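Appendix B, example 12.
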Amino acid sequence: MDWIFGLEGDDFDLDELSKVFTNPDLCIEKVDNNGYELKSSHFHLLTSMDMAQKRAEELLISINAGIKLELGAHNPIKIKTGVQIDEKGEERKFIFLNCPFHVRDTLTIHTITCDGKKSVSNPAEPIISINTIAQLDAQVKMVCQYIGQDFDSWGNLYKIFEVIESDGFPPIQRDGQYKKMSDRFRRTANSFSASGLDSRHSKDTIPPPKNPMSITDAKIFIKTIFHEWLVTKQNKIT
């Protein structure tokens, strides 16, 4: 038994993902009719569409977090169709539904070293490690869910910060590299005077920092500590 899922989302994101997810473990492939398909060895032993769809959606949690962080995605990748392939090779098709439009561009870096070696760097490459770690670590998966849900509000950015902080990530602890920035982020998020209606609190009882953090700077800060936190997770896995 095998399963293939047709994907729906911005072509920009799907095209970038198809460049980096090319292994049997997780493959996003462009097909002839300009659509994209999700294939994975994780699906082989699953016996029902509900089980296969649930597993596919779990894989998409970290991928959707990754495209928000690395590609500036506006819309999540969703499942559009499903195909069940039985032992005889016969197919049974399922159709789901969804649709919006945005324009973006990307930069693929081609490098040639002094000795003539060529390498290509695609912006979606960090999503591979995000996805790998999220499948093994419940806290990383939780952060990916928060990112996929909303990466533009003080409330969700603070939840992401709390997960990373509760995991004991040293740079945001006492005497850590980012402790001062962490305090500035925390006080801005909690102060109605600093973040207004987006504040985590409606009462203006918490004084703002001297230099409140903008939501743009807050997103950059959270993205920075998220990536560095992932490196520590990766080191523990390997």
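The first strand starts at residue 2 and ends at 8. The domain at 2-109 is CATH 3.90.1600 (Palm domain of DNA polymerase).
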